[in-house]
Structure formats: C-alpha cells, structure tokens
Design a protein that fits this description.
By secondary structure, the chain is an alpha+beta fold. The chain contains 18 helices and 40 strands. The chain has four domains: about 375 residues, Neuraminidase (6 Propeller), CATH 2.120.10; about 90 residues; about 140 residues, Cytochrome Bc1 Complex, Chain D, domain 2 (Orthogonal Bundle), CATH 1.10.760.10; about 150 residues, Jelly Rolls, CATH 2.60.120. Strands 31, 32, 33, 34, 37, 38, 39 and 40 form an eight-stranded antiparallel sheet that branches. Strands 1, 20, 21, 22, 23 and 24 form a six-stranded antiparallel sheet that branches. The two termini are about 60 Å apart.
Length: about 900
C-alpha cells in the first residue's frame, strides 16, 4: 500500500529554511535591529549582506488565502480536505481498507526555538472519515493519544494500526475492540526495531510492500509476520530518512533527508547496494521555488538565489509518492513526487529507464519551475499520497520552524531569523490538500474493504487505482482466507490486467499458497513484467527448499530482455545459488553494456569495501571485524546523507560540500577525542577555514558509548583512513570529562581542548637503557614485520628498562601512543619444515614518568599493562621537558628472548 511518509526533519548536518513573513502584514516588530554574533566576520559569505533589521512577524494565512498562493501547471486545482483546528502539525497520512484517513499529528514538534518538551507525550494518531461523501473529512476521533513523537502509522487490519515512539525499540499494535474509534488494546508486535537519539535520525515510515514484507527508513532490514512470529532479513542500506513509496512493480523508492534527493531507487533494496553512476540528470539538485524574497536558509547567504531570495540548491526532502491513481492525467502515472519544504515545492520526477538503469529528471527543469510551489513561506509539504479517490493528497505542516532545535542554537544564523520574524510563535496548525484536474472528477465510490467478501476484494486487484490494488492485497493476506486461492491462481495466469495479475501472484505468496508449477508457468509468460515478478516470487519457494529454480535463474540470465536477465542475477545471488559467477559471466557476454553488465560485474566482484587502514581484513580480530561492521552500517544508514557514501562529502555543486570529507582526514586520523567530542556534542560553523552547506553537525550524546565507539572506529579505520580503534571505555571517559559541555563546539575552540600530536623533529633527543634503534616511527612508518622504524630493547625485557624523549622546550602532554606487534623467534638451528614462532613484544608492565630537569622525576601512570597492537597511555595534563617510559616488575614470568619493542610512537598534548 501507499508509503507512510512523515515530517521534514532534514537529517544529519541538514540545511533547513525557516519560515519568514508576509510583506503585506502591518504588525511591526518594535525590537531594535538584531546584531551578528560576536566573532562573526560580516564579510563571511554565509553572513555577508544579511538583513537583520526589524521585520513584520510572520502571520499565518487563512486556508482560503493560502490556497491562492499556490502555483500549479494549467488545469490543476488544489482544495483543502482537512485543516486545523481539527488537526495539529500533521506529518503523515495513510488510508485504511475502509478509506478512513489516519493522520500522524506531531504536536510536540518545535513548539519553540529550543525544541523544549519535544519528547512530551502529547502527540496523537487521529482517524478521519468523509461520511457524507462531499470530499471533506468532517468526522474524526483520536485513535491513539499520549504518544511520544511517534515514528509512523500503518493500518494493519480492521480497526488496528502499527506504530512506535521515539527513543524506543518496540513496535506496538493498537486495536479498537469496541468500535468507538479509539484504540483500547495494545499488543507488542516486534522489538529490536528502533534507536535513540535526535528525532531526525531515528527510523521512520513502516511500509507494507507488494512482496508482503514491511520496510522502514534507516534500518537495513525488513520484517514479516508469520504463523511462528515476526521474522527479519537483512537488506541493503537505504540511506533514507523521510519517505518510502512503491511503483506498479513493487519496487521501493526511498527518499533522502538532508540530501534533498531520492536515496535508493535503482534496484530492489533486498538485493543490497550497487554503485550506479549518474543516477540524477544534470541540474536535478537545483530547486525552482517561488520568489518569496526571504533569505533564511541555514547555509547562509551563499545558499540563496538572488534577488528573489529562494533556495538555490536542494537541502531537505520529505515524503514521496509514485502516483498510481486514475483521476489525474495519465501522464502522471508512474511519476515520482516528493516535497522540499525548505524550497516550498512539490517536485515531479520522470524516471527514464535505459538498458535497465534509471535516471531521474525534474519534469519542469527546463521551464525553471516545479509541479507545485507557493509564495506562502509557511507552506511545508512533508508528505503526499495517492488517495482512494484517485487524486493526490499533500500534507502541509504549515509550521513556523521546520528544523529541529539542535540546529537552532542561540547566536546561529538560523536563530537570528527565528527571533527576527518571531517564527516560534507559529505552531499548532496544519492542512491537508487534494490536487485535482479539470474535467476529471474524483472517485466517489465508498471504500468498505473490511466489510466486503474476499471474492469481491479479488476483483479490486484489477482496479485502475494502484491504492485499491495494494490495499485489497493487504486485506486478503491479513485475512488469511484461502477460499480465494483458485480465483487468484486464475487471475495470475490469465487475468485481464497486468497489474491485477502481479497482485494476484503476490497475494498467493502472502497466503502461503504459491506453488512451483504456477511460478514456472509465469516465468515463461509473454510479458517481461510478469517474468520478472515470477522470478522474484520464486525466491520464497527456493528458500523453502525447492532448489529446482536454480536452473530457472540460469536460463533467465540469458534472456534478451535486460531487466529479466538482471532480475535472474538478483534472485540467484539472493538465494545463494551455487556456481553463480560462471552463469553471470555468460549473461554479461550476452549483455555487454547497461544494467546487466553493471549488476553482473558487481555481483562477481563486489565493490571493494572501504579501506580499513593498512591491515587486511584477515588481520583483524573477530571483535574488530564486528565493530567495523556495526560502524559501517550506521555510516551507510545515517552519516552518508551528508558525508557521502565514500566519505568524500556530499557535493552540493559550485565546489561546495554539504559536510566535511572524512576520507583521508587528518582530523579523523589524529587524536580520537576529536571525533568522539564532535559526535557527543556537535560542531557548528566554519571548519578549518571552510564553510559547508550543512552548517553544523548535531550532537548524538543520546547514543550509547559502544555506538559512538563503533562509528568512530569505522571512520578512523575505513574510508581510506589509518588510525586506531576506539573503545566504549574511551568514549565513556571522554563523555565524563566533557559532561559540562552545554552547546555545540566551534571548530577553533574545539581544537584548543582536543589533544594534538607533537610531530617529532631533529630537536628531539631519544635515549634508552637498551637500544637497537631510537628512531621514532611516526605516521609514515610501514607496518610490516621486517621493515619499520621503531625501537627495541633487543633482549628480554626486564625491570627498570627505560625509553626517554627530551623535548627542545616544555610541552603540555597528556598521552603517549605506540604500536607493539609480534616478532619472529627463530630457533638457533633452523629445523626444516618448522616455521619460526611469533612472540609478543609489548611491555608487560610500565610506568610513565615526567621531569622538567631530567633529574627529578614524577610518576603519572604506574603499573600500566601493555597489549599487542595499538597502545594508548593517558595521564593528567602535565607540562614537561622529559618523558620517560620505565618497565616495572612483570606480571608473569617472561619467556626468554621476549624484548620490548615500539614503533609508530606519537606524543599528544595541548599546543
């Protein structure tokens, strides 16, 4: 059924536009002109030319007046179907099997500039009906109340919905058992589904797919209800935040958030991720909103098209819908629509498919306009839906602030605009609109699927409106009525419409009534669309034990139709057919270009995982591999929205990035405290002298120590970086040390408190009690067993051995890093066929001492235990000219010829 979109919270390091004022209002803010924050350079491109003089405070327009501000293509009209005060701050709509409209009302969202009480239990899910069939939803109830920022709503059977709240892990099913329009029964549906943290970064949208699985944004898995409970399977990373929809073939289209563009749409998400170049047509990321003449983009003046004051680069997106109705022009069927509430537009996208690969085109790009836009700066399109009446509905939050409070700190550009226009005063509103077309009346047939016989529902699979098809399938599957299996089989094999045949096939699959003979017959169907669907459905039978479909996949890979061949590769890979590579190679030979080659090549040789530093994966421990896997998943789900899939930063055009590049970053590879502090407390403003379109990185201190350690470890060891792993214990220590940090960091201030590496130079003097080499390795030292710069005692380590560095002047130090790895231990007389053993050369027990004169020493760390691999010794900051490491008594009896060795020595402190 139709996607379950939600609000436009614009994502990691997002760029939000705040609403402004109507110039025709006469109420004047009597406050003096606002001033730039202290320390801001007025010539900075993000501040230069900003007007902070008193302005008319924003005033909401009436529904009738707002309607006049819309701009649509000729022939289209827009009319309200449900507005405030009946609803407040709608973020999502969805229809159940009886045509009733559920509204997700996010009543706690941004009630002031600091998002105070955002997690108060005041949000609701309301349900509305148009009982007199006049096109207006006049009758409603609060179906579920006292919710804490709910993530989605999905009708799931008669008088029941699925939803979950923020900062929780469970999805619940709410049911109205007595018919009063309010849920009175709450049941656990599934757990291990959510995450905590900023409301913009948690999962959203629960979508019932044509394949009878439930999908959400963020989460790289899908779930499904079975007689034996809820099951789940891994999927690719959808990198989405605020939208899921599906087309007539059941392919899911995911919508990004901060990226402002669709995030995953090329291939079905269950088959994983593929690298596809040039998915967006040239100019796609340029919005063409109305000339509202307000310069209130979070990225500053650089993000504004002059002189009209509109957004010049997409920065946030919310909600999406593949229009599949029958009461708007046929040219809209299969077109993708989504909202950009920063630009105040609804965009129409034409997906162009060539050789199995899709490129997205803005339909109105050449005219420099959009499908729908408004001169009312309060218009906030956050969701859209193909409705039961065949038209398209648009959810307008109509809200003063469209950016979560962690991005609106005091003295920020955004906060100045809020104060200037009193934007925080516009709350508690919301409108839902219907888009119609001249000469095409909406469908007035009442929807009563829950009350109709199953045989009648089967006929709806042929309905010209895709919403009816989706809902009829869902109701039949949840009803578990197998009396219609013969009719479904007949429709799948010989139905009158292709969409009806496809839905009949998947309804059979959902009822557990799909058989191999039926699928095999459909694999040979004359229509390639049906052959593709049959291959997809066969995966269920293969997983259940019918391995005969392996030969079917191999045969289909050689089909002339490239999309059928691609699906055969997808299916064979998904169910892990043996000897896959040889058959894929044959398919590539038949299709040496386009999608088959791309999918085939990346199936045989998957894109190389982002480099995990100098170590091969086989050299990592099991725990380290698990840390990287968890961190990479979070990065793909969340961080890539702004930092790019490869960590190079999301390009916004004009040589500007949405966020700093992490790949090969000296900041990331330097002291781990930098990245940990940024994740805990956020980062705002210019970074190392550069402006970024996103403006800021939000705090994530709500996440666990292990979560932050996983992410930091991944970006330090992946994305072409080469640095140490970070432990949950390190994060906990930094969290405790920085507990009084109340605001986001500014880069220059952060660099003053994060330990910096003191690079060794010729002025440093190295001495040791036992010396093989006293050279300090540094970052460039190769990590191999036989070729490195470093130091070793050369003999068995023993008490009071020491290693000392004298600096040219006193430094304020706090950490000493080094690497100790195993060396070969060769027997006096090599024995043929006997490999030399490896001995661990880390210090068994060590003290850290400092001195200002080289004579009098103070111990800062006593009895520190070394380990193989990376070692980090931390101590309270001390100003010293000498640093000495000294061995203590060994904890265990040291076997003979186990020296103490170190390489890649690094010294950290405050400069």
């Amino acid at each position: 059924m139709k996607k379950l979109a939600t609000w436009c919270l614009l994502g990691t390091m997002s760029m939000s536009l705040l609403t402004s004022f109507h110039v025709d209002h006469t109420s004047i803010n009597s406050a003096d002109s606002l001033r730039l924050p202290a320390g801001v350079d007025p010539n900075d491109e993000n501040w230069k030319g900003i007007d902070l003089s008193p302005k008319n405070p924003i005033q909401p327009l009436s529904v009738e007046e707002e309607a006049k501000r819309f701009q649509l293509p000729p022939g289209y009209k827009i009319q309200p179907v449900l507005t405030e005060p009946a609803i407040q701050q709608p973020g999502e709509i969805v229809f159940d099997g009886n045509g009733r409209m559920y509204v997700l009302e996010l009543r706690s969202y941004m009630l002031d500039a600091d998002s105070k009480n955002e997690l108060e239990p005041i949000s609701v899910i309301s349900r509305w009906e148009d009982k007199n069939n006049d096109g207006v939803y006049e009758t409603g109830t609060t179906f579920v109340d006292k919710l804490i920022f709910p993530r989605f709503v999905l009708p799931y059977g008669k008088d029941a919905v699925l939803t979950m709240e923020s900062d929780t892990d469970n999805i619940y099913k709410y049911t109205d058992t007595n018919g009063d329009g309010k849920a009175d029964k709450k049941e656990l549906f599934t757990t291990k589904y959510g995450r905590s943290g900023n409301v913009e970064h948690q999962q959203a949208f629960l979508f019932y797919g044509m394949d009878n699985w439930l999908y959400s944004t963020v989460n790289a898995f899908r779930i499904r209800e079975t007689p034996n409970g809820i099951i789940r399977e891994k999927t690719g990373a959808n990198r989405a935040q605020w939208g899921i929809t599906q087309d007539d073939n059941g392919k899911l289209w995911f919508q990004g958030g901060a990226s402002g563009v669709p995030s995953h749409f090329q291939f079905p998400i269950q088959y994983g991720n593929y690298d596809v170049p040039n998915e967006l047509a040239k100019g796609f990321e340029v919005p063409w909103g109305a000339a509202v003449k307000v310069a209130d983009m979070q990225g500053g003046m650089d993000e504004i098209r002059q002189p009209d004051g509109s957004l010049n680069r997409v920065t946030g997106s919310a909600g999406n819908d593949i229009y599949r109705g029958d009461r708007l022009p046929a040219s809209l069927r299969g077109q993708l629509f989504y909202g950009e509430p920063v630009a105040r537009i609804v965009r129409q996208i034409n997906p162009v498919v060539k050789d199995g690969l899709t490129t997205l085109h803005n339909v109105f790009q050449d005219q420099k306009t959009e499908f729908l836009k408004s001169t009312d700066p309060l218009f906030r399109p956050v969701d859209m839906a193909t409705a039961p009446d065949g038209t398209m509905y648009i959810v307008d939050m109509y809200h003063g602030i469209i950016q979560e409070g962690q991005w609106t700190p005091k003295d920020s550009y955004l906060r100045l605009k809020i104060d200037q226009y009193q934007l925080d005063k516009v709350v508690g509103l919301g409108r839902i609109w219907r888009v119609t077309y001249e000469g095409q009346e909406r469908d007035k047939k009442p929807v009563r699927m829950y009350d109709e016989k199953s045989a009648t529902l089967v006929t709806y699979l042929n309905h010209p409106n895709g919403w009816w098809q989706d809902m009829a399938q869902q109701v039949l599957v949840l009803r578990k009525d197998k009396s219609v299996v013969p009719a479904l089989k007949q429709m799948a094999l010989k139905g009158s419409t292709m969409n009806g045949r496809i839905h009949a096939l998947w309804t059979l699959e959902g009822l557990g009534a799909l058989t191999a003979p039926t699928v095999q017959q459909l694999v040979s169907d004359a229509n390639p669309r049906m052959r593709i669907q049959a291959l997809k459905a066969s995966e269920t039978l293969y997983k259940a034990g019918d391995k005969s479909f392996a030969a079917t996949y191999q045969k289909s890979m050689l089909e002339a139709d490239p999309e059928v061949a691609m699906q055969a590769i997808f299916s064979a890979k998904f169910v892990k057919v043996p000897e896959l590579a040889e058959h894929v190679k044959a398919s590539i030979e038949k299709h040496p270009t386009g999608g088959v080659k791309l999918v085939g090549d990346q199936t045989i040789t998957p894109p190389k995982p982002r480099q995990n530093g100098p170590f091969n994966a086989t050299e990592l421990s099991k725990d380290q591999k698990e840390i990287l896997a968890r961190g990479e998943l979070v990065f793909a789900e969340l961080c890539s929205q702004c930092h790019g899939n490869d960590g190079m930063g999301k390009s916004m055009g004009n040589n500007k990035l949405l966020a700093p590049a992490l790949a090969g970053s000296f900041r990331i590879q330097s002291h781990p405290e930098y990245a940990v502090r940024v994740l805990l407390h956020g980062l705002d403003g210019v970074v190392d002298g550069k402006n970024y379109a996103g403006g800021m990185m939000q705090p994530m201190k709500e996440q666990s120590d292990q979560w932050i350690a996983d992410v930091v470890s991944y970006i330090r060891n992946g994305l072409s970086n080469d640095a140490s792993f970070v432990t949950a214990q390190q994060v906990a220590a930094i969290r405790a040390k920085t507990s009084k940090q109340a605001s986001m960091y500014k880069y220059e201030a952060l660099m003053k408190v994060v330990p910096q590496e003191f690079p060794a130079d010729a002025a440093w003097k190295f001495t040791a009690s036992n010396t093989v080499s006293t050279r300090v390795g540094g970052n460039a030292s190769p990590r191999s067993a036989t070729n490195y710069e470093g130091w070793s005692t050369g003999i068995t380590q023993a008490k009071d051995m020491w290693y000392q560095i004298e600096f040219p002047q006193p430094y304020t130090l706090s950490e000493f890093h080094f690497t100790s790895t195993s060396n070969f231990k060769r027997p006096p007389k090599p024995t043929p066929g006997v490999a030399p053993t490896m001995i661990a050369t880390y210090p068994r027990l060590m003290h850290v001492e400092t001195s200002v004169d080289g004579v009098n020493w103070n111990t800062h760390v006593a009895n520190w235990k070394g380990k193989e691999g990376d070692n980090m010794v931390s101590f309270d900051q001390v100003k010293t000219k000498y640093l000495r490491l000294k061995l203590g008594e060994s904890l265990t009896k040291v076997a003979d010829e186990i020296p103490w060795s170190m390489r890649q020595v690094k010294i950290y402190g405050l400069k």
